[in-house]
Amino acid sequence: MILLPALLAACANAGKSQVPVETKEKTEKKPLKKLKKQKEVANVPSSLPHFLLEVDKNGERDEGYHDLYRIAGEKLKLKESTEEFNALSDAIEKYNRQQELIYQADLKELQNFVSSGGAGARRNDDSEMNIPEIISKTYIIRADKRIVSLLNCKEVKK
Predict the structure, then answer these.
(1) Distance between CA 11 and CA 91 in Å, rounded?
(2) What is the spatial order of strands in the sheet that 148-157 belongs to?
C-alpha cells in the first residue's frame, strides 16, 4: 500500500515537469512565425510603381506621299530605379523584349505585303480605310505593391 501513493506521486511529478517543456517549445515557434511575416513585409515595395509608355510608330510612303502601311507598338518603362523594384524592372525588360520580337515580325509581314504589290492594288481609291496597319496597345489593368496586370491588344487591318 505504500507503493501505490509513491507511484501516484511520481506520475504527478513526471507530468508537471513535462508541461514547462511543452510551453517552451510553443513559445519558440511563435517568433519564427513573426520572422516569416516580417520577411514577407520586407519584400513588398514601400510605394506603388509608376509606368511610362513609349510609343513606337513606323510606316512607309510611296513617291506620291501616300501611306503604304502603318505600324505602332508600345513599350513599358518603370519610372523608379530603386532596389525594391528590381524584380519588376526585370519582368518589364523581358516583356519589352517579347514585344520587340512581335513588332519586328509584324513589320516584316507588312513590308512583305507591300513588296508583293498588295498595298498598291488596295490603295487605288486613295482612302485612309485601305491602308494596311498593325497597332498594338498596352493597357495597365492593375498596378499595386504586389501585382501588375497588363492587357495587350493588337488591331490588324489589311
Answers:
(1) 63
(2) 51-61, 67-78, 133-143, 148-157
Please state, in angstroms and rounded to a whole number, the distance separating the CA atoms of residues 8 and 152.
76
What tens digit of pLDDT does each residue of 21-45 get?
444 444 445 555 555 555 555 566 6
Written as one letter, the residue type at 63 is: E
Query: Rounded to whole angstroms, how far apart are CA atoms 151 and 42?
Result: 29
Q: Which residue has the cell 518603362?
A: 77
- Cβ of 143: how many Cβ atoms within 10 Å? 15
pLDDT tens by residue, 109-121: 999 998 887 655 5
As given in the structure block, the three cell numbers for residue 14 are 513526471
